[in-house]
Structure formats: structure tokens, C-alpha cells
């Protein structure tokens, strides 16, 4: 086929499927996270993934909305519920799943596992298992950027459980004091393990706590990806314009248990059902369909692509090589010997 003919074919294809609607892209991003997480639960039950596993099902709109506003030069810091953040940051599903299997093809050679996904080349700085542990890391990254005069943003995701930690307050204080380019993204899913927010905090508005540090802070519907994206874009633009740190309290809900070892005795089934009705993926799909921006064919195509991506990741991880035992101390001790 000549070059001209190939170009003609492409323009025909383009005419057939209109330029991808941004809403459809967000829908696909959320679905990628959902399907990967569902697969992780399945693989955990099959003992292919071991250790701890915390899934993000129900909270996808938060990562998808914020991540859509960041560029490759920006940095992302997350918690132990970070598979989706890593995926949307560009870490391949193959590399993520291989990591969870403990395979040497994983993004940390299988040494980090589910809670410690990390990819410096993509400026994805974890995967932090310590509650609030990512906040000082984000402040440090932003301080480095500010000192070097780089126009970058560091987005830091953490749960509302972090507000009980000193690191939360120290980090907000220094970020505000030094006017650092950090976007704090609090994923307020109402529970820290089995502790409801109202049982542990006298002030349950996290945005108000952030505002007490002189940080512009907004509460956002974390089940609405378009609202999340809009708020994040406003904040990121302000940060890039030298406006210092900004804070988003994203009100969301985890549909599944805290981890794979949680009998969920602390919340009523009726409460979970009410939130399930606000499924962020279903909500956006309905909005797009009713406004004529998503046909059945397009939805089927999105699902097909996502399923294929997850299936390829499973095949990759299944065919991988566990980190060899004899290499366990590699990268742990210095190989330079005594000085
Ligand atoms: C400093 C510290 N204390 C306690 C724990 C145990 N722990 C693990 S997850 C968790 C709850 C955190 O809840 P939240 O920050 O709301 O995040 P979510 O799990 O809801 O996403 C706790 C207390 C920990 N990992 N680190
Ligand atoms: Mg929480």
C-alpha cells in the first residue's frame, strides 16, 4: 500500500469514528482501573497475589479526574491504595501486575508488591504504606522543584485518615509557609479501616482544616469525574501560576472492604447500597449516553479494549519469573565494601 493510500484509509476511519470525546476518555480511564482491581481481587483469591491488597473500586473518579490535569513533568505521590494511580500515571498494567506477583519484571523487581508500586521515570513516587507518609515526600519534591525554578506540580493523594497524623499538619504548614507547588488530594471515603471519620475527628470538614493553614481548599463531589477534573484543573492552573499549594477534599466511597482481611462490621449494608447507586462509572456512562456522546458500539469497544489490556497483563504476570531468592540482598546492602 502506498503512503497516500494509507493516509486515505486513516481519514476514512476517522470520519467513521468522531474524534474521541474527552468524557469517553475519562470513562475508559476509570474502567481500566475498575477492571484491573476486580482482576486483582480474583488473583488474590487464587493466591497468585499475596500479602496485603487494598482496592480502589468506587473511588476511580478521583484519580482519573486529577490525573487528567497533570503533565509528564509533574509528580504523583499516592498511598497503599495506589494501583489505579500508577496505571493512570502511565505505569503499564503488565508491570503493575508483575510487581504484585513478586516477579522480577515488576516495576520494583517484585520487591515492593501491591503497596509499594514506584516508577521514578514516570515521576510516580509510590505507593506509601505508612498513613500520611506520602505528604512529606510530596512537600520535598515540590521544594526541590521550587528551588530549581522548575514549573512543576506534585499531586499528593492520601486518605482522610491522614489528618490524624502529625505529618499531615507539618506538611500543610511547610507547603503553605514556603508556597510550594503541591496539589493535596484528600480521598475522603469516610472510613480509616473501621473508624468512621465522625468517631475520630471533632471537625469532619477536611477542607476547613486545610484552610486553617491558609491553603485554598475546596470540597468536591468525588463520585463525579467531571467535577473532580474541573476543580483539579482550576487548582493546577493556580499552582502553576505561582499560587502556592492547593487542597481538594474529594468526597468519595470505597465500595469494597478496606483490604482483603476486613469483615466490614463497621458500616451498614444499606449505606453501601446507597453509595453504589452513585457509581462514578455508571454515572458518567449514563450522562454520555443520554447526551448522544456514547453509542452502544463505542461502549462495547471501550470494554473490549480494557478487557484485552487486563488479560494481557495477567498473561504477562503468569509467564513471569519470581525474584530469585539468591538475589534477595541485592540492592539492600552496598556492594562497594567497607571504606
Ligand atoms: C502511621 C500508620 N498508622 C497506622 C497504619 C495502619 N493503617 C493502614 S491503612 C489505615 C487507615 C487509613 O485510612 P485512610 O487514610 O482514610 O485511607 P483509606 O484506607 O480509607 O484509603 C491504617 C490506620 C499505617 N499503615 N500507618
Ligand atoms: Mg479513608
From TrEMBL:
Q: Fetch the Pfam families from UniProt.
A: E1_dh
What general EC class does the enzyme of this chain belong to? oxidoreductase
Q: Which GO terms describe its molecular function?
A: magnesium ion binding; pyruvate dehydrogenase (acetyl-transferring) activity
Record-listed E.C. numbers:
1.2.4.1
Task: Give the reactions, separated by semicolons, that this protein catalyses.
Answer: N(6)-[(R)-lipoyl]-L-lysyl-[protein] + pyruvate + H(+) = N(6)-[(R)-S(8)-acetyldihydrolipoyl]-L-lysyl-[protein] + CO2
For this UniProt record, the keywords arranged alphabetically read as follows: Oxidoreductase, Pyruvate, Thiamine pyrophosphate
The chain positions of domain Dehydrogenase E1 component read 29-320
- The region called Disordered is annotated at 1-23
Q: Which cofactor does it need?
A: thiamine diphosphate
- Asked whether the UniProt record includes DNA-binding among its keywords, one would answer no
- Domain of life assignment: Bacteria
Q: Which GO terms describe its biological process?
A: pyruvate decarboxylation to acetyl-CoA
Subunit record text:
Heterodimer of an alpha and a beta chain.
- What is the protein name given in its UniProt record? Pyruvate dehydrogenase E1 component subunit alpha
Please give the organism: Cryobacterium psychrophilum
Q: What is the lineage of its organism?
A: Bacteria, Bacillati, Actinomycetota, Actinomycetes, Micrococcales
Amino acid at each position: 500500500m502506498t503512503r497516500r493510500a494509507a493516509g486515505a484509509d486513516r481519514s476514512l476511519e476517522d470520519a467513521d469514528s468522531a474524534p474521541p470525546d474527552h468524557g469517553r476518555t475519562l470513562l475508559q480511564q476509570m474502567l481500566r482501573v475498575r477492571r484491573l482491581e476486580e482482576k486483582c481481587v480474583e488473583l488474590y483469591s487464587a493466591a497468585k497475589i499475596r500479602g496485603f491488597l487494598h482496592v480502589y473500586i468506587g473511588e476511580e473518579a478521583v484519580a482519573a479526574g486529577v490525573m487528567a490535569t497533570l503533565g509528564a513533568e509533574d509528580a504523583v505521590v499516592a498511598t497503599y491504595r495506589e494501583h489505579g494511580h500508577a496505571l493512570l500515571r502511565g505505569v503499564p498494567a503488565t508491570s503493575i501486575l508483575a510487581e504484585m506477583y513478586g516477579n522480577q519484571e515488576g516495576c520494583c523487581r517484585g520487591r515492593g508488591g501491591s503497596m509499594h508500586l514506584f516508577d521514578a521515570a514516570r515521576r510516580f513516587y509510590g505507593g506509601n504504606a505508612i498513613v500520611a507518609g506520602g505528604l512529606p515526600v510530596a512537600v520535598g519534591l515540590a521544594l526541590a522543584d521550587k528551588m530549581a525554578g522548575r514549573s512543576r506540580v506534585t499531586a499528593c493523594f492520601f486518605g482522610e485518615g491522614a489528618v490524624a497524623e502529625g505529618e499531615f499538619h507539618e506538611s500543610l504548614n511547610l507547603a503553605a509557609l514556603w508556597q510550594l507547588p503541591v496539589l493535596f488530594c484528600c480521598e475522603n471515603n469516610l472510613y480509616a479501616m473501621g473508624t468512621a471519620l465522625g468517631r475520630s475527628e471533632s471537625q469532619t470538614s477536611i477542607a476547613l482544616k486545610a484552610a486553617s493553614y491558609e491553603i485554598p481548599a475546596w470540597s468536591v463531589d468525588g463520585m463525579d469525574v467531571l467535577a473532580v477534573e474541573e476543580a483539579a484543573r482550576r487548582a493546577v492552573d493556580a499552582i502553576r501560576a505561582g499560587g502556592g499549594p492547593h487542597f481538594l477534599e474529594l468526597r468519595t466511597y470505597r465500595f469494597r472492604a478496606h483490604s482483603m482481611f476486613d469483615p466490614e462490621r463497621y458500616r451498614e449494608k444499606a449505606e453501601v447500597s446507597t453509595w453504589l447507586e452513585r457509581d462514578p462509572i455508571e454515572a458518567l456512562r449514563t450522562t454520555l449516553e443520554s447526551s448522544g456522546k456514547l453509542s452502544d458500539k463505542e461502549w462495547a469497544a471501550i470494554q473490549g479494549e480494557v478487557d484485552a489490556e487486563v488479560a494481557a497483563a495477567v498473561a504477562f504476570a503468569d509467564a513471569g519469573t519470581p525474584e530469585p531468592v539468591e538475589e534477595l540482598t541485592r540492592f539492600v546492602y552496598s556492594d562497594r565494601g567497607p571504606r
